[in-house]
Write a structure and sequence with these properties.
Shape: elongated
Radius of gyration: 22 Å
CATH architecture of the largest domain: 3-Layer(aba) Sandwich
CATH class of the largest domain: Alpha Beta
Bound molecules: zinc ion
Order of helices and strands: EEEEEEHHEEEEEHEEHEEEEHH
Number of strands: 17
Strand content: 25-35%
Distance between the termini: 30 Å
Number of helices: 6
Oligomer: single chain
Length: 311
């Protein structure tokens, strides 16, 4: 039985939901497993589907990674490029049964890609998504301790921002064609002793006014914050277009190593949800998916893509 699979984790192929995204004017990659004698059919006015052949692997992999990570060098970018090349070389082998398909968007909407062998067929809905760009600023809090000395409230610093952006632009870029551009990242100082845990009142009154005017979104790093029980160790304020993330993130609900960036993505999920005027906060019960009230991850699903972007 043939099946579709993604080459890289969280790369916009939602095989379990028979759904994938392709950036408008761009392409995405999908692996077709057990592809012997399988015939592909699709809307040729809106899609172009071709096998990635051996001699094309380097170029296609580079182009794919460049369009999602930009030119910014990072370890993550290098690792992903290596993984993708390895995967594509695997499917380009003539003796293998899997095919690496490059799915190019030529039109708009949500055409279908069908793979049939005899009377059995599997299909993917291919959502052609317009790119959306938002600007984001980061603010790192300093305040006074009891003796009046200025101290850093957070362990994070502006030097960490390139990493935040690399991760966020994969989570939202590769999965739903939404990208964030940095406006600036700076320390801010509140000349008061605020204590180790920032209250919601203090945040609104003394910190939020220090947001970056003109940015679509400002993220505050304040150390610890009195987040509500319903919230994943942070908070998004729709009326201000700002959010706060606690230094530790939310280890119980995310995988190891994703607890912090996961909460950042969670709060940005609220921003994107509100931006489309969707009802409610955006929380849901689909375990293992971003914004879930239970266990979360950096993975989106078809419903979240539908909520955040449109074809
Ligand atoms: Zn939330």
């Amino acid at each position: 039985m043939a099946s579709f699979a993604q080459f890289l984790q969280d790369s916009g192929v939602y095989a379990a939901q028979s759904f994938m995204i392709v950036p408008r004017g761009g392409f995405n990659l999908v692996c077709l497993r057990d592809s012997k004698d399988v015939h592909l059919s699709y809307d040729r006015d809106r899609l172009q589907v071709e096998d990635v052949r051996f001699e094309q692997v380097e170029r296609v992999a580079q182009e794919y990674i460049n369009s999602r990570y930009g030119k910014q060098e990072s370890q993550e970018r290098d690792d992903q490029l290596l993984r993708l090349r390895t995967g594509l070389y695997g499917t380009a082998r003539l003796d293998g049964s899997a095919r690496g398909l490059k799915v190019v968007a030529k039109g708009v909407g949500i055409p279908e890609l069908k793979a049939a062998r005899g009377t059995t067929a599997i299909k993917l809905e291919v959502a052609i998504l317009q790119r959306k760009d938002f600007t984001i600023a980061f603010r790192f809090l300093k305040h006074l301790d009891q003796s009046g000395k200025v101290i850093n409230a957070t362990k994070w610093t502006p030097d960490d921002v390139p990493w935040f952006l690399t991760r966020l632009n994969w989570v939202f870029g590769a999965q739903t064609n939404i990208f964030f551009t940095l406006v600036d990242a700076k320390w801010i100082t509140v000349q008061k002793a605020l204590g180790p845990k920032i209250s919601r009142d203090v945040f609104r009154k003394d910190i939020v006014p220090l947001k970056r005017r003109g940015a679509d979104l400002t993220c505050f790093l304040v150390g610890d914050y009195d987040a509500m029980d319903t919230e994943a160790a942070g908070e998004y304020l729709p009326d201000e277009q700002v959010f706060v993330v606690v230094d530790q993130g939310n280890p119980p609900v995310f995988d190891l190593g994703e607890a912090f960036i996961g909460v950042m993505a969670h709060e940005i999920g609220h921003f994107l949800h509100h931006k489309r005027n969707m009802p409610g906060s955006g929380h849901h019960n689909r375990s293992g998916i971003l914004l879930s009230s239970g266990m979360e991850s950096l993975s989106l699903d078809k419903q979240l893509v539908t909520n955040f972007n449109a074809w």
